[in-house]
From TrEMBL:
Family: Belongs to the TACO1 family. YeeN subfamily.
Domain TACO1/YebC-like N-terminal: 3-73
Residue intervals of the TACO1/YebC-like second and third domain: 79-235
InterPro entries linked to this entry: Integrase-like_N (IPR017856), TACO1_YebC-like_2nd/3rd_dom (IPR048300), TACO1_YebC_N (IPR049083), Transcrip_reg_TACO1-like (IPR002876), Transcrip_reg_TACO1-like_dom3 (IPR026564), Transcrip_reg_TACO1_YeeN (IPR026562), YebC-like (IPR029072)
GO-annotated biological processes: regulation of DNA-templated transcription
A single GO molecular function term of this UniProt record: DNA binding
Subcellular compartments: Cytoplasm
GO annotation, cellular component aspect: cytosol
PANTHER family per record: TRANSLATIONAL ACTIVATOR OF CYTOCHROME C OXIDASE 1 (PTHR12532:SF0)
Protein name per Swiss-Prot or TrEMBL: Probable transcriptional regulatory protein AM231_11405
Keywords recorded for this protein, A-Z: Cytoplasm, DNA-binding, Transcription, Transcription regulation
Principal place of residence: cytoplasm
């Protein structure tokens, strides 16, 4: 995996940091997760995952509280979870996850973003088979060896532990997400550089300079759509 997770994370952070667009999307995601069960992260694992990820993006407490209060109160908006798959320049692969209260608005918007930016949508399953759902948790101030010892003490056998830039990134099975975090917290580590369930490509590709610029334009167009929550891909950006 090399430095690929941080490479992707840094690219997103450079554009997404402290924007109202990102906060609004987290508000919807928190609301939907809270409505699925109890609006309490201790009894609602889906909500806990979203809140942990929101923390790494510095989502203001006011945004989180507003979404939770809406879920607890009279909020009755119905959102559907949708997944679209497609291709970008040079056969690059893209997964788009959306939460929408209007399917008739979302599908054409996603298709248009693909078509206008050098991509094309595929059928369901045309891309996702090349990705694995993965728990990704990052910490600073530890070496890979120290993290490995910490997790072994907690009887956790994860997929991989890699030093990437100044962080140590743990790649684990999705059902290990909370257990890995609890192992860190038991060791006095409660701040994570990344903490999310993601779709991680099995193989990453690089693009030529002109293809990379076109690809970034496509990803930006997809991420700017109101209903799109997450965009996953298999491109490693050149530094």
């Amino acid at each position: 995996m090399g430095r690929k997770w941080n490479n992707i994370k840094e690219k997103k952070a450079s554009k997404d940091a402290n924007t109202s667009r990102v906060y609004a999307k987290f508000g919807v995601e928190i609301y939907v997760a809270a409505k699925k069960g109890e609006p309490d992260p201790e009894s609602n694992r889906a909500l806990k995952v979203v809140l942990e990820r929101a923390k790494t993006y510095n989502v203001p407490k006011a945004i989180i509280d507003r979404a939770l209060d809406k879920a607890k109160g009279s909020g009755d908006e119905n959102y559907e979870e949708l997944r679209y798959e497609g291709f970008g320049p040079n056969g690059s692969m893209i997964i788009v996850d959306a939460l929408t209260n209007n399917v008739n608005r979302t599908a054409p918007a996603v298709r248009s973003a693909f078509n206008k930016n050098g991509g094309n949508m595929g059928v369901s399953g045309s891309v996702s088979y090349m990705f694995d759902q993965t728990a990704v948790i990052g910490v600073e101030g530890k070496t890979a060896e120290e993290v490995m010892d910490l997790l072994l003490e907690a009887d956790l056998d994860v997929r991989d532990i890699l030093e990437e830039d100044e962080a140590v990134i743990v790649y684990a099975e999705p059902d290990q997400f909370h257990a890995v975090q609890e192992a860190f917290k038991a060791a006095g580590i409660s701040d994570f550089t990344v903490a999310e369930l993601t779709m991680l490509a099995q193989n990453f590709v690089s693009l030529p300079e002109d293809g990379q610029a076109q690809f970034e334009k496509l990803i930006d167009a997809l991420e700017d759509l109101e209903d799109v929550q997450q965009v996953y891909h298999n491109v490693e950006f050149e530094e």
